[in-house]
Amino acid sequence: MSDIVPFTDLGAMTREVRSTVGDAWRLLLDTSRFIGGDAVEDFEREWAAYCGTSHAVGVGSGTDAIRIILTALGIGAGDEVIVPANTFVASAEAVVLAGATPRFADVDPRTLLLSEETMEAAITGRTRAVLAVHLYGQMPDMDALGRAAAKAGLPIIEDAAQAHGASWRNQRAGALGRAGCFSFYPGKNLGAFGDAGAIATSDSDLAARIRCIRDHGRAPGSHHRHELIGMNSRLDALQAAVLTAKLARLADWTTARRRIAARYRAAFADGPVQLLDEQPSARGVHHLAVVRVRRRESVREHLTQMGIQTGIHYPTPCHMQAPYRRYAAQPLPVVEQAAVEVLSLPIFPHMTDAQVDRVCEAVHLACRTSKSCLA
User: Fold this and answer.
1) pTM of this structure
2) Helical H runs in 180-325?
3) How confident is the model at residue 372 (pLDDT cuts 50, 70, 90)?
4) Right CATH number for 10-105+112-245 from 3.30.70.3400, 3.40.50.1390, 3.10.20.30, 3.40.640.10?
5) At what angle do helices 237-267 and 353-370 cross, to 10 degrees?
6) Fold of 250-370
7) Pairing of strands 127-133, 156-159
């Protein structure tokens, strides 16, 4: 089918930066600085400035970013970290890999993000941190979470893997907690040409520990002296060059995503599907365009027949995945209900108005045909 509306289009973004990346790659070939070097340091500096933090440390992936920050904070065996169960499994995976225990929390029914109430309900005497996940490119109520976390004496770690450039009261994701963790997986709003990640923080001592841990625990300036038990999670120079090239385009791409999300919201204001709410003080970047709909599989099948590609994020909550059931302390009704209703519609910066209109028309028709409505 030639007129398929794709779920995303990475090729269009790649074409915008291909020449710049090609020049950077040729320079790397000439210098052979494939790990570290100017390319990595330049990106780290630019990413910190973008996030509004004093430091950014490139690492191998977003999962590593969470694992490393927990280790750097001394969180491990016997400790619990609050994790909203509505998230990609890597959020919980990183906690377990750090030696700690994920304490799964329910989410707000309007945003499907962690809330003050669901966070407080998950706190125990073993809780040592809160992972605030900015899922779908949207941010939870960071004021409320911050007050509750401060009251309990807990640091907030931002899982901003899907929220490059999202903001709360004009502060960007990554600058509101003790540290912010980012993934640059190719499909992200700011994506590399492979796996990559970063940690943003304004805590200089913490940044130094992160740099040490990501590089086998090496002491600063030494190749053979190791001060900490670390790991191999270094951002390579090619990915850094790609990210620097794409960062120059990120503002325009984010504007396009916001325009598309606004068109969806207007088209579905009266149904038949329900878009997730956005907090009044938040400004999202719409990594995903998530709606809730009854009879999802039927609706999705009709959309596929009409040439509309869709996704599901996520059909099985973390606490119901086989390796993590042991950490499920209680049912989480909001997460569990949402898991059978969420449907992700196409959204990408180069999506045309005609494609958006086609999606909207197809959703209305699919829902009528399936007799499905969540108005």
Assistant:
1) 0.97
2) 204-214, 237-267, 296-305
3) low
4) 3.40.640.10
5) 60
6) Aspartate Aminotransferase, domain 1 (3.90.1150)
7) parallel
